[in-house]
Amino acid sequence: MAALLLRAAVGGTMVAHGVKHARSLEGTAGWFGSLGFRHPRLQARAGAAVERVLAAAGERLSAPDRGSDRLNMIIFMCDAARRDLGEYRPQPVPLGGRSPVLARTSTPPDRSPETSYAPLDGPGIGCELSPAQEFALFARMLSRLGYDDGLAGHITYQQPDGTFLVNPFLIPWDQLRASDVCVCDPSGTQTAGRYRINSATELHFAFHRVRSTRVIVHNHPKWSTAWSAMRRLPPVYDQSSALASGRLVLVDEYTGTVEQQEAAEQVIAAMGDAEMAILANHGVLIIADSLPELLTRARVLEVRSHNAWHVEAMGPGGRTLPDDMVARLGRGLEKVGGAFPGYFEAMARHEIAADRSVLD
Questions:
Q1: CB within 8 Å of 2: residues ≥ 6 apart
Q2: Region Disordered: start and end of each range (predicted)?
């Protein structure tokens, strides 16, 4: 068994660096426990074996070429050792654990004897979330991306039973908790929640009735709103500004004094089949079929607006990406569900680490 334990430790400086990095998070033996070594004594023996490699490696650990692939390598070796010992069982780190970034939500891919290295799946969020917790995290993610105009803005998230989760009016998005999230019936009537919703959310309910979409966000992010005042769509000057599926249009909603329902119908008609709109002299409206897809669109729209502003502020000479390249990048996102892979999960881990009360 000692030889098998050392399989998790051999590999020279690459393996040693991976464990040294992990040890700074929660201790070597405990880290082996998070990777699936169930028995405490087995954790301790594995940790001790690696400590010996660390000691032998010495100064080589400070080599400038070390990187994250070292950590992947030691996890792979640990998987091999656990399989030989009959100890393999993926164990996501609980929410209260110190290393949610190491939590796994799915079984690693099969590794044949001929395969020397295979990457693991992404770390996921590290815990199961209720729809209300997803919603609260999503609101905080958007706020961090610049969708943070005080108390303004609305989010609707349709559930499988036809009801909607909605943000309350008087709580800023960066303070929202799961227990603050409101519920509305399919008609848009509020049925649950301590605080009332914004009456202007009627635009969302009207949109949901006309188009089959699960998530709608409206807010006034700084850079996109600047372009709304210019009544222009921001040009796509760089790759990051093109990494979103869906079409962006300009909507001039201020055609006269109208009632709320009429204004909603005008915006819906003007958007057509587009998924994103810059509302002239107002803000943005974005729709999507999932929270991760909408998060990607929201981020990329604001990045596009921000970068375009800076390019044009530098004066003439900026060159936009060719239309065919923009379309190709967008289609690439569509093939993976419209969301940049792993981005929602990474942002969720960040928000939970920053303030775990978001889940309360």
A1: 45, 49
A2: 94-116
